[in-house]
Amino acid sequence: MNDDAAKARTAKKSDLGVRAASAVVMIAVAGLAIWLGGLVFTAFAAAVALGVLWEWNRLAGKIAQSGVARVLWLLGGIVYVGVAVAALVLLREFDRGMLLVGSVIALVAAIDIGAYAAGRTFGGPKIAPSISPSKTWAGLIGAAIAASLVFIFILAPLVDTRFMRGLGVLVAGGIATAVIAQVGDFFESWMKRRAGVKDSSQLIPGHGGLFDRVDGLLAVLFVGVVVHLGMFL
Known about the structure:
Blueprint: H1 2-36, H2 38-63, H3 67-93, H4 97-122, H5 137-158, H6 167-195, H7 210-232
Helix pairs in contact: 1-2, 2-3, 2-6, 3-4, 3-7, 4-5, 5-6, 6-7
GO biological process, one term: CDP-diacylglycerol biosynthetic process
Protein name: Phosphatidate cytidylyltransferase
Pathway: Phospholipid metabolism; CDP-diacylglycerol biosynthesis; CDP-diacylglycerol from sn-glycerol 3-phosphate: step 3/3; Lipid metabolism
């Protein structure tokens, strides 16, 4: 038993090193692309989109029961991923686009960190254990608090519009964004459960696939586009 425990601890330490190294590389590559902007960022975003669509199609192929269903899944993935990534590319072209893109990514990262910290600290009832056993209501509250802080201290000063004023509006925006990001996470978890896999792929050492890393970001961007269009229709 002691040997098994020691092996398990060694494996965890080894996995932690791989995860850390992969995270550094991902942050460096994404950060450089965001900083350079233009064609470099567009090419980077397109590469990520194609990678996610490849993983989406692999999962859908295990979920769909017919050729028609597979086509519908593929079309849905193209719309979902395409709209979200196009929104990110468009944001980079705005005035202070580098800060906008960085802020959106920081927002979703804060949601993940807040959810993880609160969930591990307080535990408590699960939201949907049959889909994602690790997600708790405490984690969702932590995610909402983290998102609200980003709205108040980062996004509000950066995006000074009449839609981003007032503490109540900013907190509501943070809560809504946290819920949307978590729904995106649950949706990908549901796809993986239906497909019978742990990760969307093994593309990123120690982290699984691209879809695993950007599930919440895709949901936030996609819903953001839909809401934005709905306000002007």
